[in-house]
Amino acid sequence: MALSTDELACVYSALILQDDEIAVTPEKISTILKAANVDVESYWPGLFARALEGVDVRKLITNVGSGVGAAPAAGSAPAAAAGGDSKESKKEEKKEESEEEEDDDMGFGLFD
Questions:
Q1: Mean pLDDT over all residues of the chain?
Q2: What is d(CA 109, CA 112) in angstroms, rounded to the nearest whole number?
Q3: Does pLDDT of 82 surpass 60?
Q4: CA 72 to chain centre
């Protein structure tokens, strides 16, 4: 999904406000957009301000890569760097794969 120019302009405005530790409001987003000579649909600034209400944008940005999907990759790196036994890690990977496969097989297929 590609973001429109209006969306990107509002994202950048919100980031500027957050960086300057200024509350993200529709009026302030509109002010930044006006100063940058960017015209957006009138509903975008309010939409972004409501979406970011009560959200710590700085914390959100710094935690982007620390989601659940990144945990296994981060967990395996220290073992490899410490000279961990590769056979053990392969056994663990196979065990995890077999458990996942068992969970996925429910006795029917998508096209049955």
A1: 74
A2: 5
A3: no
A4: 17
- In the three-class reduction of DSSP (H, G, I as helix; E, B as strand; rest coil), residue 56 is classed as coil
- Angle separating helix axes 26-35 and 5-19, nearest 10 degrees: 110
Sequence-separated (6 or more) residues with CB below 8 Å from residue 30: 45
- Neighbour count for residue 89 (Cβ, 10 Å): 13
Listed in sequence order, the residues at least 6 apart from 93 whose beta carbon sits closer than 8 Å to its beta carbon are: none
Task: Report CA dihedral (62, 66, 67, 68) to the nearest 10 degrees.
Answer: -170
User: DSSP H helical segments within 5-110, as ranges?
Assistant: 5-19, 26-35, 43-51, 57-62, 71-81, 86-104
In tens, the pLDDT along 17-64 reads 988 888 999 999 999 999 999 999 999 999 999 998 888 888 888 887
CB atoms within 10 A of CB 99: 10
State residue 12's pLDDT score: 92
What residues have CB less than 8 Å from 69, skipping those under 6 apart? none
